[in-house]
Amino acid sequence: MPRHVQRRQAAQPLHTTGVVSRAQQSSTCPVTASRSSRNTYWTNPDASVARSQRFAFDALGRLQHLIETRNGEDVSTLYGYDANGNRTSDASFRGKTTTTEYDGLDRPLRITDPLAGLTQLAYDGQDRLTGLTAPNQAATGFTVDGLGNVQETSADRGSRPATFDAAGNLKTLSDGRGTTASFTYDALNRPLTVAYPQSGENVTYTWDTGCANGIGRLCQASDKLGSTRYAYDARGNLESETRTIGTVSLTTRYTYDDADRPITTITPSGKVLTTSRDADGRIGKVAGDVAGTPIDLVKDVQTDAAGNVTAQTFGNGTGLSRQFSDDGLPIGQTVTQATRPQDGDVPLPAWALALLGAGLLGALGRRRTALVLVLGLAAMLLPHTSTWARETLTYDADGNIVERASPAGTTTYGYDALGRLDSEAGPAKTQSLGYDANGNRTSDAGGSHTYTPHTNRPASVAGQAVSVDAAGNVTQLRNLGFVWNQAGYLAEVRQGTPAGPLLATYDYDHKGRRLRKSTTAAAPQGATTTLYLYDHADRLLVEADGAGTPRITYVWRDDTPVALIRHGTPETVLYLETDHLNTPRVARNQAGQVVWRWESDAFGSTAANADPAGTGTSTTVNLRLPGQYFDKESGLFYNWKRYYDPTIGRYISPDPIGIAGGLNLFGYAKQNPLRFIDPDDLSPDPLNSSGESRGLPGVPTSFDVFFQVLLRMTSLLRAQCRRSMRYRRCAKIALRNVGKSVTPLTKFRWRFARWLRRDEPEKHVIPEQMSCPASA
């Protein structure tokens, strides 16, 4: 997060406070003497407004209005409260209202959404949640013992009995299939082992010893494929990660600046990727080398005051610029190319003729005409910029994209009262989408879909039966069979049924990241083995063959992919142009030619064009929606611990964190994939171009409240993520790093009433770099 210096002017009846960054990007905040309103502006150094918000409070200091500007008009969200200060209603600009009813102990009992969908909650005598029923009657029940230990029974995941040791650590946990995982811990309650009935998915953790600066840190994790060893610098930053897979050992190294921000990544092949940052930590360029030649893979990165990346230039000279509305929504994108004539573009006789003509004209006294001729010739020779592609986005008053205009054509979108995408019409696909009360898709261009009553489990897709195991994992869908390992990860893909011919096998590390994919001759790509390595932020860094020889190195600017370096003879680079969600849409080569394009429908079911120029040469880019990777053998998108099916817009297994990720354990991006992303398959995040979550913590929708409450009430996450303005991201990564089974949802202490009754100023924290103080 950028560092800022806060300046306060002398208090006046109406005064302004400012927050100024080292880059002189400031937030100015007029505040009335009664403190009843607060305005926040993200202003650029040229005084232009990058984003603005206005907050109005009632006499008790509770947020009453949140006002933003969209499409040139003010859009207001109105909040209502009861006599005890509980928020009872959220009403949007278009009158879409969510209401919450409370019992006599100020506990939320019923939440009604704008389509009259009812979510019901139940508690025991100690305010602990014992039941939750979604609008489609899918129920989740919780049994809480005297020590606060929780066991879950889910309509989607089945019964999940658990036992705990004397310190409250999870001792055993069984899934809906009856597969039991056992856990052990050291004296500091850190996980030591995770064991299953069969040893294939067992994990062993080693702490403190065997690595540099390892005291208090994880030094090694051993799993089915081998081990992951860590080393740290004196400040606790990850210095190296060595992954051993059989006889293959691959080490990735990192260096950091004085603010502990990563600046250098050295891949196992020795390729050095260097990130340059300004004083506020914003990336200015990412450099590397291709075929031994140093190159700025992306440079001249410009960022506005709200953190939106407004411009950047790729290593092939292609420029990408973005425009944003006053409330920070991306509204346009332009791709340009700086060009200069190459040898032979202007024939030598033409040069000679032009110069001769200029000389003759000058001799005859027609100096002005000669000057024009010379300047015209110079313009031909000097670099110039040409616009290659423009894209514009149009929004409704709720912030949903209703039109996207691009070189491929114009696509229009429609939404229901819950903000779910219910129609799209454009070059990629035209379809209407239907949903049940809990967001399960019931119809689309492919046909009708059904679900097991009172659950979110699929029963049929387009008239074909779907098989699901007792833990909620899909085992048969269309012409594919799926086999799941003991940890609940997809292990095999087969033709037809789970017993059919093998297409692919998958293996994972202790974090649930896929490390190896082996396909057979029956798969579309044939028999091959691919190893995957990830960086310090769990982003895909390297693809290698089974012997560890690199095939592809992925280059990132924060969470945005910007380039692929393809190893081989010769070594080449592809530059990735992404959309407003940071989804790759175009790949260009060093000459600026488009060699790959993905113009898809909103949920990503449209196939990519591997040869848009028709040259006969195919180009492969497997990155898809944020955090996802295309598997040719299944048509699914791998998304960390789960797999996403773009044809039906949902995952094929339930959320590992249960209802903490939302009421629908299979849904993707709240059924609005143009506005939300889910890079770590846990819970959707709203996104602006910088990759930061947007919105006010503590102003949740009815679908967010469960996730935020459950995570905020754990001491572990509260300690790690307190006051973090990327709380959702921080909390989810903390869950990931500890492990799904080590810190399960069953250890969470749920205190809804306490969370919902906390003071309003705490509820509506504004990020530090854009903060307006509550008082002078």
Radius of gyration: 28 Å
Termini, distance in Å?
24 Å
Strand content: 35-45%
Which structural class is indicated by helix and strand composition? mainly beta
Low-confidence stretches: 1-19, 340-356, 377-381, 689-728, 733-776
The average pLDDT is: 83
Helical content (DSSP H or I, runs of 4+): under 10%
The outline comes out as globular
Total strands: 60
Describe it.
The protein is mainly beta. Among the domains are: 1-85; 348-381. It has a 21-stranded antiparallel sheet, with no helix packed on it. Strands 1-2-3-4-5-6-7-8-9-10-11-12-13-14-15 form a 15-stranded antiparallel sheet. A 13-stranded antiparallel sheet has the order 42-43-44-45-46-47-48-49-50-51-52-53-54, with no helix packed on it. Helix 1 (348-363) runs antiparallel to helix 2 (367-381) and helix 4 (715-721) packs across helix 5 (727-738). The longest helix is centred in the middle third of the chain and has 16 residues, at 348-363. It is globular.
Set down the secondary structure blueprint.
Blueprint: E1 4-8, E2 14-21, E3 26-32, E4 37-43, E5 49-57, E6 63-70, E7 73-81, E8 87-91, E9 97-102, E10 108-112, E11 118-123, E12 129-133, E13 139-144, E14 150-154, E15 158-160, E16 162-164, E17 170-174, E18 180-185, E19 191-195, E20 203-207, E21 218-222, E22 226-232, E23 238-245, E24 248-256, E25 262-266, E26 272-277, E27 283-290, E28 293-303, E29 309-314, E30 318-324, E31 330-339, H1 348-363, H2 367-381, E32 384-395, E33 401-406, E34 409-415, E35 421-425, E36 430-432, E37 434-435, E38 441-444, E39 447-451, E40 458-461, E41 464-465, E42 467-468, E43 474-477, E44 480-484, E45 490-495, E46 502-508, E47 514-519, E48 528-534, E49 540-545, E50 550-557, E51 560-566, E52 572-578, E53 584-588, E54 594-597, E55 629-630, E56 637-639, E57 642-645, E58 650-651, E59 676-677, E60 685-686, H3 705-712, H4 715-721, H5 727-738, H6 752-756, H7 760-763
Antiparallel strand pairs: 1-2, 2-3, 3-4, 4-5, 5-6, 6-7, 7-8, 8-9, 9-10, 10-11, 11-12, 12-13, 13-14, 14-15, 16-17, 17-18, 18-19, 19-20, 20-21, 21-22, 22-23, 23-24, 24-25, 25-26, 26-27, 27-28, 28-29, 29-30, 30-31, 31-32, 32-33, 33-34, 34-35, 35-36, 37-38, 38-39, 39-40, 40-41, 42-43, 43-44, ...
